[in-house]
Amino acid sequence: MAEGIASMRRRRALGQLLALPASAALCTPWAGAADLAAPVQPADASATRGTLRIALEGTYPPFNFRDQASGQLAGYDVDVAHTVATRMGLNPEFVLTEWSAILPALRAGRVDVAISQVIITPQREKTFDFSAPYLYSQSRLIVRENERATYGTLADLKGRKLGVRQNSVFEQQAMAVPGIDVKRYPAVPENLQDLAFGRIDALLDDSLLVGYLVRQTQLPLKAGARIGAPLRAGIAMRKGRPQLKLAIDKALREARSDGTLRALSLKWFGQDASNMPPA
Length: 279
Fold this sequence. Notes:
By secondary structure, the chain is an alpha/beta fold. The protein has helices at 2-18, 45-49, 76-87, 99-107, 122-125, 169-175, 188-196, 207-216, 242-257, 260-269; strands at 51-56, 59-60, 64-66, 73-74, 91-96, 113-114, 128-130, 135-144, 161-165, 181-185, 202-206, 221-233, 236-238. A five-stranded mixed sheet has the order 5-1-6-13-7. Strand 3 and strand 4 form a beta hairpin. The protein starts with a helix and ends in a 10-residue tail after the last helix. Mean pLDDT is 84; it is low at 1-6 and 16-44.
Protein backbone atom coordinates (compact mmCIF):
# COMPACT_ATOMS: atom_id res chain seq x y z
CA MET A 1 0.00 0.00 0.00
CA ALA A 2 2.76 2.47 1.01
CA GLU A 3 4.75 1.55 -2.08
CA GLY A 4 1.72 2.21 -4.28
CA ILE A 5 1.17 5.64 -2.73
CA ALA A 6 4.85 6.49 -3.19
CA SER A 7 4.64 5.43 -6.83
CA MET A 8 1.59 7.64 -7.37
CA ARG A 9 3.43 10.59 -5.81
CA ARG A 10 6.43 10.03 -8.04
CA ARG A 11 4.22 9.88 -11.13
CA ARG A 12 2.43 13.08 -10.05
CA ALA A 13 5.76 14.88 -9.56
CA LEU A 14 6.94 13.67 -12.94
CA GLY A 15 3.66 14.72 -14.48
CA GLN A 16 4.17 18.27 -13.22
CA LEU A 17 7.60 18.39 -14.82
CA LEU A 18 6.37 16.74 -18.01
CA ALA A 19 3.46 19.16 -18.45
CA LEU A 20 4.25 21.09 -21.60
CA PRO A 21 3.34 24.78 -21.57
CA ALA A 22 0.41 26.13 -23.53
CA SER A 23 0.34 29.42 -25.37
CA ALA A 24 0.06 32.64 -23.32
CA ALA A 25 -0.18 36.33 -24.06
CA LEU A 26 3.54 36.91 -24.59
CA CYS A 27 4.47 33.32 -25.29
CA THR A 28 4.65 31.93 -28.84
CA PRO A 29 5.53 28.22 -29.16
CA TRP A 30 8.11 27.69 -31.90
CA ALA A 31 7.71 24.57 -34.00
CA GLY A 32 8.18 25.95 -37.50
CA ALA A 33 4.76 27.60 -37.47
CA ALA A 34 3.90 29.43 -40.67
CA ASP A 35 2.85 32.61 -38.89
CA LEU A 36 6.27 33.28 -37.38
CA ALA A 37 7.74 36.64 -38.27
CA ALA A 38 10.58 36.77 -40.77
CA PRO A 39 14.15 36.61 -39.40
CA VAL A 40 15.27 39.83 -37.75
CA GLN A 41 18.40 41.26 -39.38
CA PRO A 42 18.94 44.90 -38.34
CA ALA A 43 20.69 45.37 -35.00
CA ASP A 44 18.05 47.87 -33.91
CA ALA A 45 15.05 45.80 -35.02
CA SER A 46 14.23 44.83 -31.42
CA ALA A 47 13.89 48.48 -30.45
CA THR A 48 11.80 49.23 -33.54
CA ARG A 49 9.51 46.30 -32.74
CA GLY A 50 9.36 47.13 -29.02
CA THR A 51 9.93 43.51 -28.01
CA LEU A 52 12.87 41.22 -27.35
CA ARG A 53 12.16 37.76 -28.76
CA ILE A 54 13.68 35.20 -26.43
CA ALA A 55 14.16 31.48 -27.06
CA LEU A 56 13.37 29.57 -23.87
CA GLU A 57 12.96 25.87 -23.18
CA GLY A 58 10.17 26.23 -20.62
CA THR A 59 10.57 22.71 -19.17
CA TYR A 60 13.81 23.10 -17.21
CA PRO A 61 13.17 23.99 -13.56
CA PRO A 62 14.37 26.01 -11.72
CA PHE A 63 15.77 27.88 -14.73
CA ASN A 64 12.61 28.12 -16.82
CA PHE A 65 9.32 26.25 -16.48
CA ARG A 66 5.55 26.63 -16.28
CA ASP A 67 4.37 27.33 -12.73
CA GLN A 68 1.57 24.87 -11.98
CA ALA A 69 -0.35 27.24 -9.71
CA SER A 70 -0.36 30.37 -11.87
CA GLY A 71 0.14 28.86 -15.33
CA GLN A 72 2.81 31.49 -15.97
CA LEU A 73 6.42 30.99 -17.00
CA ALA A 74 8.76 31.13 -14.02
CA GLY A 75 12.37 30.53 -13.07
CA TYR A 76 15.73 32.25 -12.91
CA ASP A 77 16.09 32.61 -16.68
CA VAL A 78 12.59 34.05 -16.94
CA ASP A 79 13.26 36.63 -14.22
CA VAL A 80 16.61 37.55 -15.78
CA ALA A 81 14.93 37.92 -19.18
CA HIS A 82 12.29 40.26 -17.73
CA THR A 83 14.98 42.26 -15.94
CA VAL A 84 17.17 42.65 -19.02
CA ALA A 85 14.31 43.46 -21.41
CA THR A 86 12.78 46.01 -19.02
CA ARG A 87 16.09 47.79 -18.54
CA MET A 88 16.43 47.92 -22.33
CA GLY A 89 12.96 49.47 -22.61
CA LEU A 90 11.55 46.38 -24.33
CA ASN A 91 8.86 43.80 -23.63
CA PRO A 92 10.04 40.17 -23.42
CA GLU A 93 8.37 37.83 -25.90
CA PHE A 94 9.12 34.20 -25.07
CA VAL A 95 9.37 31.68 -27.87
CA LEU A 96 9.14 28.23 -26.31
CA THR A 97 11.56 25.90 -28.03
CA GLU A 98 12.78 22.39 -27.33
CA TRP A 99 16.34 22.56 -26.02
CA SER A 100 17.92 20.84 -29.01
CA ALA A 101 16.35 23.43 -31.34
CA ILE A 102 17.15 26.61 -29.37
CA LEU A 103 20.50 27.45 -30.96
CA PRO A 104 19.32 26.52 -34.48
CA ALA A 105 16.33 28.86 -33.96
CA LEU A 106 18.70 31.63 -32.92
CA ARG A 107 21.02 31.00 -35.85
CA ALA A 108 18.05 31.10 -38.26
CA GLY A 109 16.92 34.48 -36.91
CA ARG A 110 13.61 33.33 -35.48
CA VAL A 111 14.51 34.96 -32.16
CA ASP A 112 16.77 37.79 -31.01
CA VAL A 113 18.45 35.98 -28.11
CA ALA A 114 18.46 32.71 -26.18
CA ILE A 115 18.12 32.92 -22.39
CA SER A 116 17.82 29.28 -21.39
CA GLN A 117 20.87 28.30 -19.34
CA VAL A 118 23.05 28.37 -22.46
CA ILE A 119 26.58 27.45 -21.38
CA ILE A 120 29.37 29.49 -22.96
CA THR A 121 31.89 27.25 -24.74
CA PRO A 122 34.69 27.99 -27.23
CA GLN A 123 32.82 26.02 -29.89
CA ARG A 124 29.61 28.01 -29.44
CA GLU A 125 31.54 31.29 -29.42
CA LYS A 126 32.62 30.54 -32.99
CA THR A 127 28.98 30.82 -34.09
CA PHE A 128 27.34 33.12 -31.54
CA ASP A 129 28.11 36.15 -29.43
CA PHE A 130 27.46 35.95 -25.70
CA SER A 131 26.74 38.46 -23.01
CA ALA A 132 28.84 38.60 -19.89
CA PRO A 133 27.98 35.54 -17.76
CA TYR A 134 24.88 35.92 -15.59
CA LEU A 135 25.17 32.53 -13.87
CA TYR A 136 27.93 30.17 -12.75
CA SER A 137 27.36 26.48 -12.14
CA GLN A 138 28.93 23.05 -12.62
CA SER A 139 28.10 19.67 -14.09
CA ARG A 140 26.82 17.12 -11.59
CA LEU A 141 25.59 13.56 -11.62
CA ILE A 142 22.05 12.74 -10.52
CA VAL A 143 21.31 9.22 -9.26
CA ARG A 144 18.42 7.36 -7.69
CA GLU A 145 17.92 7.76 -3.97
CA ASN A 146 18.54 4.04 -3.36
CA GLU A 147 21.61 3.81 -5.63
CA ARG A 148 24.29 1.62 -4.03
CA ALA A 149 27.02 2.08 -6.62
CA THR A 150 29.44 4.97 -6.18
CA TYR A 151 30.12 7.12 -9.23
CA GLY A 152 32.87 9.54 -8.31
CA THR A 153 33.88 10.33 -11.89
CA LEU A 154 32.49 9.74 -15.36
CA ALA A 155 34.97 6.91 -15.78
CA ASP A 156 33.07 5.02 -13.06
CA LEU A 157 30.08 4.89 -15.43
CA LYS A 158 31.81 2.79 -18.10
CA GLY A 159 29.41 0.04 -19.08
CA ARG A 160 26.49 1.97 -17.54
CA LYS A 161 23.69 4.03 -19.07
CA LEU A 162 24.10 7.78 -18.62
CA GLY A 163 21.39 10.24 -19.64
CA VAL A 164 22.22 13.67 -21.03
CA ARG A 165 20.40 16.46 -22.84
CA GLN A 166 20.92 16.36 -26.57
CA ASN A 167 23.33 19.00 -27.94
CA SER A 168 24.39 20.06 -24.44
CA VAL A 169 27.79 20.48 -22.81
CA PHE A 170 26.83 17.50 -20.68
CA GLU A 171 26.56 15.36 -23.79
CA GLN A 172 30.02 16.52 -24.85
CA GLN A 173 31.48 15.64 -21.45
CA ALA A 174 29.91 12.17 -21.50
CA MET A 175 31.00 11.43 -25.06
CA ALA A 176 34.61 12.28 -24.16
CA VAL A 177 34.79 9.20 -21.90
CA PRO A 178 34.91 5.89 -23.83
CA GLY A 179 32.76 3.02 -22.68
CA ILE A 180 29.72 4.93 -21.38
CA ASP A 181 26.36 4.05 -22.90
CA VAL A 182 25.17 7.62 -23.52
CA LYS A 183 21.43 8.14 -23.94
CA ARG A 184 20.43 11.50 -25.41
CA TYR A 185 17.18 13.26 -24.55
CA PRO A 186 15.59 16.33 -26.18
CA ALA A 187 14.54 17.75 -22.79
CA VAL A 188 14.92 17.22 -19.05
CA PRO A 189 11.54 15.70 -18.06
CA GLU A 190 12.00 12.59 -20.20
CA ASN A 191 15.40 11.73 -18.76
CA LEU A 192 14.22 12.32 -15.20
CA GLN A 193 11.43 9.83 -15.82
CA ASP A 194 13.82 7.20 -17.16
CA LEU A 195 16.17 7.66 -14.20
CA ALA A 196 13.40 7.53 -11.60
CA PHE A 197 12.08 4.26 -13.04
CA GLY A 198 15.48 2.60 -13.52
CA ARG A 199 15.84 2.75 -17.29
CA ILE A 200 19.20 4.52 -16.98
CA ASP A 201 21.81 4.50 -14.20
CA ALA A 202 22.53 8.21 -13.83
CA LEU A 203 22.04 11.64 -15.36
CA LEU A 204 24.61 14.33 -16.01
CA ASP A 205 23.20 17.84 -15.81
CA ASP A 206 23.50 21.17 -14.05
CA SER A 207 24.30 21.14 -10.32
CA LEU A 208 21.68 23.84 -9.69
CA LEU A 209 19.02 21.59 -11.22
CA VAL A 210 19.99 18.84 -8.79
CA GLY A 211 19.53 21.10 -5.77
CA TYR A 212 16.08 22.13 -6.95
CA LEU A 213 14.98 18.53 -7.49
CA VAL A 214 16.09 17.53 -4.02
CA ARG A 215 14.35 20.50 -2.36
CA GLN A 216 11.17 20.87 -4.41
CA THR A 217 10.04 17.51 -5.78
CA GLN A 218 9.15 14.07 -4.52
CA LEU A 219 11.25 12.34 -7.15
CA PRO A 220 13.38 9.54 -5.64
CA LEU A 221 16.63 11.17 -6.77
CA LYS A 222 19.72 12.59 -5.09
CA ALA A 223 22.83 14.57 -5.97
CA GLY A 224 25.91 12.70 -7.10
CA ALA A 225 29.50 13.79 -7.73
CA ARG A 226 30.41 17.14 -9.24
CA ILE A 227 32.10 16.83 -12.61
CA GLY A 228 34.62 19.15 -14.27
CA ALA A 229 35.30 22.87 -14.00
CA PRO A 230 32.75 25.64 -13.29
CA LEU A 231 30.38 26.50 -16.15
CA ARG A 232 29.32 29.98 -17.28
CA ALA A 233 25.86 30.73 -18.65
CA GLY A 234 25.32 33.76 -20.88
CA ILE A 235 22.72 35.30 -23.15
CA ALA A 236 23.37 34.04 -26.67
CA MET A 237 22.79 36.15 -29.79
CA ARG A 238 23.76 36.08 -33.43
CA LYS A 239 27.04 37.65 -34.43
CA GLY A 240 27.01 41.04 -36.09
CA ARG A 241 24.71 42.81 -33.60
CA PRO A 242 27.15 44.84 -31.47
CA GLN A 243 24.56 47.37 -30.29
CA LEU A 244 22.34 44.60 -28.98
CA LYS A 245 25.26 43.03 -27.12
CA LEU A 246 26.25 46.38 -25.60
CA ALA A 247 22.68 47.02 -24.42
CA ILE A 248 22.33 43.56 -22.89
CA ASP A 249 25.70 43.76 -21.14
CA LYS A 250 24.77 47.18 -19.74
CA ALA A 251 21.49 45.82 -18.38
CA LEU A 252 23.26 42.86 -16.78
CA ARG A 253 25.97 45.07 -15.34
CA GLU A 254 23.36 47.29 -13.69
CA ALA A 255 21.43 44.27 -12.38
CA ARG A 256 24.62 42.89 -10.88
CA SER A 257 25.63 46.22 -9.31
CA ASP A 258 22.29 46.86 -7.61
CA GLY A 259 22.01 43.29 -6.29
CA THR A 260 19.16 42.15 -8.55
CA LEU A 261 21.01 39.13 -9.97
CA ARG A 262 22.09 38.02 -6.51
CA ALA A 263 18.53 38.34 -5.18
CA LEU A 264 17.12 36.31 -8.08
CA SER A 265 19.76 33.62 -7.58
CA LEU A 266 18.96 33.35 -3.87
CA LYS A 267 15.26 33.17 -4.72
CA TRP A 268 15.63 30.23 -7.12
CA PHE A 269 18.75 28.38 -5.96
CA GLY A 270 19.15 29.28 -2.28
CA GLN A 271 22.67 30.51 -3.05
CA ASP A 272 24.43 33.24 -4.98
CA ALA A 273 25.25 31.64 -8.30
CA SER A 274 25.44 34.98 -10.11
CA ASN A 275 29.12 35.40 -9.28
CA MET A 276 32.13 33.23 -10.05
CA PRO A 277 32.71 30.87 -7.07
CA PRO A 278 36.06 31.25 -5.26
CA ALA A 279 38.83 28.96 -6.49
